Fold this protein.
Amino acid sequence: MVTALYVLNLTLALIIVNKEVPTSRGMLYPTESETREVRSLDGIWNFVRSDQNNPTQGIRDGWFNADLSKSRPTIPMPVPASYNDITTEQSLRDHVGTVWYDRKFFVPRSWSQNQRVWLRFGSVHYEAFVWINGQSAVKHEMGHLPFETEVTHILNYGAENRITVMCDNALIQTTVPQGKISEVANDGGVTIIQSYTFDFFNYAGIHRSVHLYTTPKTFIEDVEISTNLADDNSVGYVDYVISINGSAANEADNAIYAKLQLYNREGVQVANATSDAKLSGRLKVEQAKPWWPYLMHPEPGYMYELEIKLHAANAELLDVYRLSIGLRTLSWTNATFTINGKPVYFRGFGRHEDSDIRGKGLDNALMARDFNLIQWIGANAYRTSHYPYSEESMQFADKHGIMIIDECPSVDTENFNQALLSKHKSSLEQLIHRDRNHPSVVMWSIANEPRTSQTNADTYFQFVANFTRSLDRTRPVTAAIAVPHADDKAGRYLDIISFNRYNAWYSNTGRLDMVTQRVIDEAIAWNQKYDKPIIMSEYGADTLEGLHLQPAFVWSEEFQTEIFARHFKAFDALRRKKWFIGEFVWNFADFKTGQSYTRVGGNKKGVFTRARQPKAAAHLLRRRYFALARELDQCSMPEDLFTYIADVGASVKHDATDL
Ligand code: GCB
């Protein structure tokens, strides 16, 4: 009987159907204009934790009907930030289930007239329930992605308002990412444990900014652009589709139109157009300045400003929205990836949004520092491992010419099932909707280390990859795979194969003599299996800053430096085969993980410490990344790249020509 049930379950699990998923609307990044105002609700909120064994009590008891402090004693909590590391309490750090936030705010009387008001969250991990003045306003599931709702009719104008947020961090088998919740006996009774296989701390809370913003009654709800360049890159094309929302849109179909003007960096108008009745069209940009990656061109990250003015049939100005855009074109084959017709070799990192105290909370100072370090080290790309990063960081990447492999929050995906598939697709839909206008985004990563040898992985990834393509055909699709190439069932649905492997670390620990050939052999094997471009998307070694051991020994700075060098040798052999198109170190900086005896305060594979200072290997990596940039794109070298050693003639060189 038991066997029969098991077989039945297995059969049910095998049938995965490709169902529709809900479509995102709106969510343009909130910016001010002649017709829009933006107010931040960031700051110190009131915070309370539910009892772990009673996570829905607050809903049943209506905690949202009054100030939270009326239900429970509250503590101050910064927004944006993860709540886990703010206090000194282990119980809050490791809390599983719901927590509550609230705060008061005023809305100006002027906002009640002739406009609409929207509430927007940059991200809440993992699930959010929001009330305004006790009325349910919006619910959203999926960390690291924005959501918004109209609140025009539930606000008090010229008066005080209260916003209440319940956030649930529980991860189960049908969330993205997956986790497991179990009840385990402890010394005093039982406790609820959240477990997950992924290797970063499940930070939670209101992670990114909260905004209120106004729009006119009829407004620009969405803009989708795609860009192209003529073969010689001298002329650029911007295809646009504008969606509008509002009563004027419904009444006067076809009568509304948009005027678009494109400005260059100097503020000079370089193109303009009036849309067709469907609010779509094309701008042609003569003497285009293409968007180039960092070090690939003397002027990387060139951004234009697209000004969109929405007009009523009688020419009245309804709404103005400005969007930064870059002109570039991508193409790929089974052996190449090009940008603006030039082959690209990726050199960069897997990263995390992670830092002391604030966890995964948006921190502008940290973000600016990280981009300075990326430029200092000469990287041209990173993967948003293992979830979408802040919109502010996407804007930074655009401006700095840093290419992004944009990853959805699916990590260590397993036990493929129908509910999971729908959420996985929804995470990609939300991600692509949010990020499709960024020139920095050059590839979609649909998963990290999915268990692609399992039954069902084949159908599952066929659906996920094809769904991604149906949303955006202008960028290739990849996934970072770690199962052995022979067992993988997903690669054939990808455009580019990325693989993660830890030679001399997880396998053959300490054996630096077992790296180079293995990396070469594995890359060749992936290429032979799928005949697609290959990237090594993770390699590295945990390294305790300040630990020096000569000869190199695991965990020491010497070992990280040596292991990098062994990989570089493999990459150089592979680069001769044109299909090997990139190397990504794991990780940019040390980051926090769950507790484990393999982790000393977290994962220490950072090239930078968690405080964003270089380890010894950073200097080596910097010399390599600049050497690659110089060889491939003839960039000039930073003056401080080589330290003076000795004036001993031609045998010891110490300047850029040494490369
Ligand atoms: C991996 C994972 C990454 C881990 C890393 C490690 O393969 O993709 O999330 O942090 O290995 O250091 O174990």
User: Anything to note?
Assistant: Residues 397 and 440 are 6 Å apart (CA to CA). The first helix runs from residue 2 to 14.
